[in-house]
Automatic annotation (TrEMBL):
Residues 20-31 have a biased composition (Low complexity). Residues 32-42 have a biased composition (Pro residues). Phosphatase which catalyzes the conversion of NADP(+) to NAD(+) and of NADPH to NADH. Shows a small preference for NADPH over NADP(+). Represses translation and promotes degradation of target mRNA molecules. Plays an important role in post-transcriptional regulation of metabolic genes under circadian control. Exerts a rhythmic post-transcriptional control of genes necessary for metabolic functions including nutrient absorption, glucose/insulin sensitivity, lipid metabolism, adipogenesis, inflammation and osteogenesis. One of its GO terms (cellular component) is nucleus. This is Nocturnin. Residues 146-414 form the Endonuclease/exonuclease/phosphatase domain. It comes from Papio anubis (Olive baboon). GO terms for biological process: circadian regulation of gene expression; deadenylation-dependent decapping of nuclear-transcribed mRNA; mRNA stabilization; NADP+ metabolic process; negative regulation of osteoblast differentiation; P-body assembly; positive regulation of fat cell differentiation; regulation of circadian rhythm. It holds the Pfam family Exo_endo_phos. It is found in: Cytoplasm. The gene is NOCT.
Length: 431
């Protein structure tokens, strides 16, 4: 076992990082220089820290995530885990191991480790929170919620064809540190992620030591498994800080469309705020991608809304829904959420001048098929039970740059969304 949280942190960050440069003392990054084409020398300090703990995490990942090279093979291997009888035999797919015996990590130390690994890359983009508070006071700390499609590693390297993104920028040993740095910068109380294919060997081990409880639900036949040297299926993950919330109920939902079970999933959890005793439901999802599947997404959205209607007892429990909906605001699935009896509003509309317009983009990339600039990611909330106190502004076009996302600066093709919520003081009969 590791003798300190710092050494464990180093091992988990660097377990698969042969070829990393020697690291400087933790602190600010050096000025950026393009990566050399020659192999980089390994870091003896970090490689020496690798031991059985990281190997166990790797083994857990391999056990949980069968490899595959075709849809037919991976469907037969994975779809069976999604029915109730099989799920009980494969709990590693659905919930995290109990982290109580694991030694905590200081978030500052983890951030230092990330910055040390990233010392040759340009610094993080500066993004500011926009104060959206009204005259409604709150006696309790806000609830910070972060929504992010982090880009599955297998898809980024093997399927998505980001033609303007250097291959070096997508290497997992550094890209995972960019992802962690983004999370640590905003310190969310609740973290909702999509396209997670390194849950068991990276995010669950590290975030559990930061005080989060996590749940992972993979797609039944993830496209990641068609990529050589993949790390298992991608899926949705939901994390919450255990010192702020108590888990009341949790549901893993395989979405249906026209009565057919689909490849898209959602997680919905009812949490109780330890400070206020108030309950609310937090959900995360990732709907079907690509043009031509609009009706399919609409059906998936209706199924999710029906599930959430039941979970929230007909909107009695306040609700926050995070996700990559793969749908512009003009699509039917967006309109279903906007007009639902759950009384939902999209938080990021509040950044617009009129409070009625979504951001111009939440994803911006260049593929072989051309440039794609779309608004696909949302944080929905119960507008009569919750107030949005602030929201993280988006990256500007100048910050994103002409090569778009992902890049050496930013690890995903989707922007993270972060909002601070508070309960209304007069709950109008809501729990």
């Amino acid at each position: 076992m590791f003798h300190s949280p710092r050494r464990l942190c180093s091992a988990l960050l660097q377990r698969d990082a042969p070829g990393l440069r020697r690291l400087p003392a933790p602190g600010l990054r050096r000025p950026f220089s393009p990566p050399a084409s020659a192999p980089r020398p390994a870091s003896p300090r970090l490689l020496a820290a690798v031991s059985a703990a990281s190997g166990a995490a790797r083994s857990c990942s391999r056990t949980a995530c069968s490899m595959g090279t075709g849809t037919s093979r991976l469907y037969s291997a994975l779809a069976k885990t999604l029915n109730s009888s099989a799920a009980s035999q494969h709990p590693e797919y659905l919930v995290s191991p109990d982290p109580e015996h694991l030694e905590p990590i200081d978030p500052k130390e983890l951030l230092e480790e990330c910055r040390a690994v990233l010392h040759t890359r340009p610094p993080r983009f500066q993004r500011d929170f926009v104060d959206l508070r009204t005259d409604c006071p709150s006696t309790h700390p806000p609830i910070r919620v972060m929504q992010w499609n982090i880009l599955a590693q297998a898809l980024g390297e093997g399927k998505d064809n980001f033609v303007q993104c250097p291959v070096e920028a997508l290497k997992w040993e550094e890209r995972k540190c960019l992802i962690l740095e983004e999370i640590l910068a905003y310190q969310p109380d609740i973290l909702c992620l999509q396209e997670v294919d390194h849950y068991f060997d990276t995010f669950q081990p590290l975030l559990s030591r930061l005080g989060y409880q996590g749940t992972f639900f993979p797609k039944p036949w993830s496209p990641c498994l068609d990529v050589e040297h993949n790390n298992g299926p991608d899926g949705c993950a939901l994390f919450f800080l255990q010192n702020r919330f108590k888990l009341v109920n949790s549901a893993n939902i395989r979405l249906t469309a026209m009565t057919l079970k689909t490849n898209q999933v959602a997680i919905a959890q009812t949490l109780e705020c330890k400070e206020s005793g108030r309950q609310f439901c937090i959900a995360v999802t990732h709907l079907k991608a690509r043009t031509g599947w609009e009706r399919f997404r609409s059906a998936q959205g209706c199924d999710l809304l029906q599930n959430l209607q039941n979970i929230t007892q007909g909107a009695k429990i306040p609700l926050i829904v995070c996700g990559d909906f793969n749908a512009e605001p003009t699509e039917e699935v967006y309109k279903h959420f906007a007009s639902s009896s759950l009384n939902l509003n999209s938080a990021y509309k509040l950044l617009s001048a009129d409070g009625q317009s979504e951001p111009p983009y939440t994803t911006w990339k260049i593929r072989t098929s051309g440039e794609c600039r779309h608004t696909l990611d949302y944080i929905w909330y119960s507008k009569h039970a919750l107030n949005v106190r602030s929201a993280l502004d988006l990256l500007t076009e100048e910050q994103i740059g002409p090569n778009r996302l992902p890049s050496f600066n930013y690890p995903s093709d989707h922007l993270s969304l972060v909002c601070d919520f508070s309960f209304t003081e007069e709950p109008d009969g809501l729990l």
